[in-house]
Amino acid sequence: MWDFIWNDFLVTGEPLIYGAMASIVLVTVLIVFVLTYFKLWKWLWDEYLTTVDHKKIGIMYIIAALAMLFRGGVDALMMRTQLALPGMNFLNSVHYNEIFTTHGTTMILFMAMPFIIGLMNVVVPLQIGARDVAFPFLNALSFWTFFFGAMLFNISFVIGGSPSAGWTSYVPMAGPELSPEINQNYYLLALQLSGIGTLATGINFLVTILRMRAPGMTLMKMPIFTWSALITSIIIIFAFPILTIALALMTMDRIFGTHFFTLAGEGMPMMWANLFWLWGHPEVYIVILPAFGVFSEVISTFARKQLFGYKAMVYAMCVIAGLSFVVWVHHFFTMGAGAGVNSLFSITTMLIAVPTGIKIFNWLGTMYKGRIRFNVPMLWALAFIPNFTIGGVTGVMLGMAAADYQYHNTYFLIAHFHGVLIAGTLFGMFAGLTYWYPKMFGHKMNEKIGKVSFWLTVIGFNITFLPQYFLGLMGMPRRTYTIEPEWMPLNLLSTIGAFILAGGFVIFVYNIYFSARYEPREKTGDAWDGRSLEWATTTPVPHYNFATVPYVNSHEAYWDMKETGATTYDESKLEPIHMPNYKGMPIIMSAIMFVASFGLVWHWFWLAIPGLIGVIICMVIRSFDYDEGYHVPIEEIKRTEEQARGRKE
Amino acid sequence: MSEHAELKTGPLEYRKEEGTLTILGFWIFLAAEVVLFSTLFATYAVLFGRYGDATPAPELFEMPIALAMTFLLLTSSFTCGIAIHMMRKESLKGLLIWLSITLALGLGFLGFEIYEFVHYVHEGASIQSSAFWSAFFTLTGTHGLHVTLGIAWCLLIIIQLVRVGLTPTTARKTFVIGLYWHFLDVVWIFIFTAVYLIGMVV
Amino acid sequence: MKNLVSWFKRLFMVPGLFALLLVASGCSGITVLDPKGPVARTQQELIIFSITLMSVIIIVVFVLFFYMIIRFRERPNWTDKDYDPHQHGNTTLEIIWTVIPFIIVAALSVPTVTSLYALEEPPEGSDQEPLVIHADTSNWKWYFSYPEQNIETVNYLHIPEDRPIEFKLSGADSMTALWIPALGGQKYNMAGMQNTLYLEAEEQGEFAGRNANYNGSGFAEHTFTVTSESEEDFNEWVSDIQNNAPELTKERFDQYLEPGLADEAEYSSTHLEYVDFGENDGRSYITDLYSGDLGEDVHLYGGEGGPWEEE
Ligand code: HEM
Ligand SMILES: [Cu+2]
Ligand SMILES: [Cu+2]
């Protein structure tokens, strides 16, 4: 028993891991202490853990994403330290492999995804004039399954050992024959758990956007960020079931002895690569399109001009979404499918550059004849344009299959996808967060500190990743734990850049603290002279969002309202507002799913089966739940609105 | 959130906005299910004929069983349609009767499927035998699991119908399970064609 | 108009210069841009062509970008004169920047497709038949079998210069990729199937070769060296092995298949006698042999004079 706990259950023998364990325990104790000392448990449960309010759920997503960015960032710094010099002995090969696996998986699935979904949650209902999403209960469930999925993934490094097959988890390496240990099961079940939540989010937002828009807001009058959320939701709905199946099949291979991807029994390892990237490529567009949406909003607001070529922007996103499903083979041009197949997928891949190019030029066009303010959200959006262009054109180069034989699996590829993920997704999320921050928290983020953080990040990013293009061309493969002497100078440079980049991130987080304490409170509700409906609400946003929903005439609804002096509070039209009740079920149900998945990871059916039964019981209880929410009485709406608008009217 | 106003005319399940949203959401969910089953069909196609050392499928497949299953499920889809028709006519009793018949037919289908699986395992073809058999059991089994869930869910709805009668909420729930049931029927037709018909021939 | 033309000329000169710079610096260590054989050259030319074209795009975007943010920034003595908040698009412009990318994609597609087809054939220019070498891998070793010569080497490779090599790629376990950057791009080795990769060296010398596709804890050491030598030297090397090296017995080869690292070695027979991993039958050879023992890891450390194994 103790032997099992010490040798198999807990990961032992690594000083770094002991350090991590100690810090986890410490932080947990600290949190519990603070919550207990300040008597915050009840508040936490009532206001957040049981909430179904899209604004609070969005905030929880974003906090989780920032925490995961921290985890993934620490992984990155450890990798860069090991790669700084030849002969470094900081991480051995086994440990390094675990770390790049958790880094990649965390960054894509537990950082980029929740960040995007978080912003969608906060912003989309406000932009379309809705009181919440279509299925608030399901929304909470989505968040909690994501959250527990992320937790499951993150405990792996102290309990049982981290997966180490890369975020792509190619078989047969990741299969039961070559990786019999349980580590890989964490990857499978954690992604499965959070994947279910993501799929539900996709459905939820599609229905919300299709059915709950303000009167007058036709599809072509939607704010562009909402458009990006709509298209992202559609991609999610068509891509995530593929991941669900791929993960399920590998799980069955590993736990129930099936032969989908194995060497024995005539399994077909290549099928995994196909299924994975059939989901994986659309996935990268899931994480970039909402960022595009943010940039469109930010650039138009801060250039004080409406978006240039609104329709072209929408069509471009639709084309990108379509193409994203027919390019997956570019991730394994080197599999030997033949010149015909590779030619076809080269061309489809390069075609994505066309709609992307259109978008870039339209953003430039938006600034033309504008009056540009350089606030921090705008800085992130501006930095995106040149940096993303570099990442994008190298993507085109990678798409040329004959040349890709030389780039594939090298640092050239690493440089490319960080170019698009960091300069695209991450800058986009930072832009979005700083932009909507006043709406979420009632005060801006400090501009001075924000600028320091911005410049460090942008400079650090370029120092880190530009040299990697050259390293790739020099023959340095990705996922190697050690470097050759001739690759040293550029690697050292890259490592220095990584620490600068990390500095930028630390300052960003510090700014959250600083601003909460010292930034002046935001009173108007319209912090940036905005153009779409979210700025029409008061700050803080009342829990029902809109007392009365205005009639919308253009994709810049609030801009029009400002011209006519309309508000979202029309006393003559007040009606009681129907709102859903908060529920404990989503968090409880997700926690039970967590337990069941944990059991499956360890092949402990005595734990997994009761867990599954628990989930079913929850569903039955939910089926019998006829709670239809409550109505906010007119009196209360009046009181709330008059208090918030008192100084205005 | 939805306006609380409840329409006085039109199909019961659409009278509340909540009903409209849920039904649309369910349609979209079914789209995701289509992708899910398509992936399983693709897997089955890729692994087709990869028997390894295990028995090839044509030696085991039995047309009568597959036909019986098809018959049961198709009929159940029909009875389910009648049930929804009864609901439209606001006949709770008719609805309950036809739902129960649907349920019974579904159980019959499941019985045959379980029998079939047990039979194959006896003949030495289990989910662990080879790539083909893994794909076969997973594709048909996933469908079977959906049917099982459908039956359990239908039971819950029958209980609720008995307890609270026909309201916009229970009508919505019934309508949704109806959609689900028809969907499973369609998937089965594809399975019957792609797995049994083609499997017998090739 | 004349202004515009010269402006465009200048625009193309910059990336041209940049590309030249890259080629020049290629000699000083950018392996992929300093090809040592016809395959790598095809790819290098394609890469240089794409870099040139891409630089044009980058320059256009950068120029426009800085023009916009400088010209239209809000500044103290700002006037309304060229502020146009109601401008919502411009169809002509939008058509232009849709069509031009299409043309660029077409321009990139043509050489890509022709190179793709060319790479499926032995490189042109040599009148000799390709030399066939089976390159198989298992965790974390390379086995090069020369069926004609009936010899096999472990973790190193000799090839005659100026003769196309036809690699038959396959493997016993994890998916890997044979990559010799100086000679050309990579292709995957997969159990139970065979890929063909043509490469050729035009120079004598030593080149680094490796598995480029991550396959677990020994990945960084899953490398080999390539020696390209004259026809005579090569033949001498072959007959030396044929005469002096031991035979590769089945027991010996099965030992190799256990996960781990191995030293360079040579044998006067090949493992193809026992198993061909390129055939469907070879797919489960290793799992039949070692079911359960294939999960072993090697712990490689960078320090203290190079990698070594724990325990
Ligand atoms: C602090 C900034 C970052 C640094 C210094 C960094 C560095 C690295 C390094 C060194 C690798 C491993 C290369 C290898 O050995 O194969 C890597 C892989 C990866 N990174 Fe990052 N990274 C950073 C941020 C990000 C972000 C923001 C994302 C996603 C949004 C991301 C996504 C990935 C992915 C997907 C992989 C591939 C993992 C795999 O191959 O399994 N990284 N990164
Ligand atoms: Cu891709
Ligand atoms: Cu293959």
Blueprint (SSEs and pairs):
The complex is a heterotrimer of chains A (649), B (202) and C (311).
Chain A: H1 2-9, H2 15-37, H3 41-49, H4 54-83, H5 93-128, H6 136-155, H7 183-211, H8 224-255, H9 269-302, H10 310-323, H11 339-351, H12 353-367, H13 376-399, H14 401-407, H15 411-441, H16 447-473, H17 488-518, H18 557-564, E1 577-579, H19 585-601, H20 605-623, E2 630-632, H21 634-645
Chain B: H1 17-46, H2 63-88, H3 92-122, H4 131-164, H5 168-201
Chain C: H1 2-26, H2 38-71, H3 91-119, E1 131-138, E2 141-146, E3 151-154, E4 156-160, E5 165-171, E6 176-180, E7 184-189, E8 195-199, E9 205-211, E10 223-229, H4 231-244, H5 250-257, E11 265-267, H6 285-290
Parallel strand pairs in C: 1-5, 4-10
Antiparallel strand pairs in C: 1-2, 2-3, 3-11, 5-8, 6-7, 6-9, 9-10
The structure holds protoporphyrin IX containing FE and copper (II) ion (CU) (2 copies).
Note down, in words, how this protein is organized.
Chain C: One of its GO terms (molecular function) is cytochrome-c oxidase activity. The complex is a heterotrimer of chains A (649), B (202) and C (311). Chain A is mainly α. Chain A has a two-stranded antiparallel sheet. The model of chain A has no long low-confidence stretch (mean pLDDT 94). Chain B has 202 residues and is an all-alpha fold. Chain B has a single domain, classed as Four Helix Bundle (Hemerythrin (Met), subunit A). Helix content of chain B is 77%, strand content 0%. Chain B has five helices and no strands. The radius of gyration of chain B is 19 Å and the shape is elongated. Chain C has 311 residues and is α+β, with helices and mostly antiparallel strands. Chain C folds into two domains: 73 residues; 164 residues, Immunoglobulin-like (Sandwich), CATH 2.60.40. Chain C is built from six helices and eleven strands. In chain C, helix 1 packs across helix 2 and helix 2 runs antiparallel to helix 3. The longest helix of chain C is centred in the N-terminal third of the chain and has 34 residues. The termini of chain C are far apart. Chains in contact: A-B, A-C. Chains A and C meet through helix 5, helix 10, helix 11, helix 12 and helix 13 of A and helix 2, helix 3, strand 7 and helix 6 of C. The site of one copper (II) ion (CU) has 2 residues of chain C, from loops.
